[in-house]
Amino acid sequence: MIHVYLDDYRACPKGFVPARTVDECLLLLQECEVDVLSLDYDLGWGQPNGMDLVRTMASAGLFPKRIYLHTSSEAGRQQMFQMLYASKPEHVRLTNGPMPPGLLAEISETVQE
């Protein structure tokens, strides 16, 4: 089981697999069992964004166990949250905001050095 952090700019938290593009994130969702997925909206000029990922996740039924939205784009966060909320399976936990510090600490502690 892995944790995935989709962001083209920010540093990836310890214990997470970085995905810098929508395609990288989709590949991880298709090939791995994902526990925590943290999403950014803006992924670079002219590049697919977080909403493009969410649309594909919804249409393909590709969902992790937990989803957080760490984007600084308020409009993007609301769009992603609304589509995820409407399409996610009941067992998927969706949070309309970033991961809490306690969860980040818990995940980083599980990493083998």
UniProtKB/TrEMBL annotation:
Organism the protein comes from: Paenibacillus ehimensis
Origin superkingdom: Bacteria
Name of the molecule in the record: Cell division protein FtsJ
GO process annotations (BP): cell division
Domain Cyclic-phosphate processing Receiver: 2-85
Keywords: Cell cycle, Cell division
InterPro entries for this protein: cREC_REC (IPR046909)
